[in-house]
Model the fold of this input.
Amino acid sequence: MNRASPIPTRNLEEAVVWRVRLTESPDLFRSGLSAWLAEDPFNEQAWRAVQDPWMFLGEQATSPSVVRLRRAALAHAYNTLRSNWLRAKLRRPPVRLGAAATLLIAMTAGLLWWHYRPTYYLTGPAEQRTIRLPDGSRVTLDASSEVTVRYTAEARMLALLRGQARFDVAHNPQRPFTVTADGHKVVATGTAFDVNLIGSEMQVTLLKGHVVILPADASARPFVPVGVPGVSPHLVDVAVTGVPPDWQRIALDPGEQLVIAAHAPPHVNRVDVHRVTAWQRGQLVFKNETLQQVLARINRYIPEPIVAGDARTGALRISGVYQEGDVDGFVSTIVNYLPVQARELDNGSVVLTYQPPQPADPTVGQ
Done:
């Protein structure tokens, strides 16, 4: 028999009936179920189609709301089927119950999706937010940032869609914590790290513990015995699969920052963690960064953007400490220390354009 063949509707119908029977009287019908499973190879497939997601929902999703929904789905199937199989005195599973079988499977799948659907968290300009997750982990979002969170029984999966966030991860080696951002995945089991998306660049800074950075489609699952050849010592709790052979996994130590840019090879630098996390204290600290990078971060805190009017302006470099949201102070500093001029548009945005330094007047001082 071809295991990939579609499961006949009749087998699915009978599997739903056995699911209802076992829920009502498990001791009475357990032996009958075993006999039914042995009758037809398709019976086992049909049983798995009904039972596997049902048991997963029952054993893993323990919140009261999901338990109520699970009971409601079973009650619906029970009420749909009860009169048929009671009239048959439980001798033979009824036929023509395809709609009920499909409905039960669909409701189960829907409940699974409802319980494990991603949850979105976002912040507006000049807003910061700390989210406490069910396992005790925390996500601190910078201004104009967005993250999704999806927890399952085996994994904690997050995605940073824009902006910057700090992740303080509760230790759980049996439930890896992953953050996907810009086509890459940061894997941890218990640690703290910062992810910053600036234009086409991603920065991952490890604050404590250990993390590894992988392609976004790599898979992380629990448990790798210590000392397995080819496994990073920083990942003794997590097994990683699906890594292309030409992709070098990157592990960080505290105080290291991985920078991945669109047109440059990834590189790791030692950084000042206090400077990297200054945004949590209301400050932005820049050290010899391009004006384009600086503006990308400044604009998270203001309603109307400040933009570089040309490539030459954006390539200018700047260092300094600025208060979040202090637009006037920032623009004043830029104009005084860099060869640029500022022009405010009618919509409130500010355009910075390069202004060549004026040659000294030879008549001055004569």
Summary: The radius of gyration is 29 Å. The chain has nine helices and 21 strands. The domain at 119-271 is CATH 2.60.120.1440 (Jelly Rolls).
